[in-house]
Amino acid sequence: AMTSSDDGTVRIWDTSTIEQKTVIKPSLAKPGRTPVTTCAYGAEGRLIGAALLDGSIQLWSVQGAQGLLFWCPGAIAFA
To answer: Is-above-0.90 flag for pTM?
Structure first.
């Protein structure tokens, strides 16, 4: 499972143990915290996408090693 938060993070959870596995902290144009308004896995399960309150949409590899793959400031996302 995956959750987005007002604390500016995306968290991945192990649903069988209810333990947090990973915390993703999006890149920000300005210092501080920007709430993550929504998040989702890509159709093939290889990407994680998130929309932030600052209007950016960000994508990461589920592997985590590659980090931020795409950042689109000023975008509008619908969930």
So the answer is: no
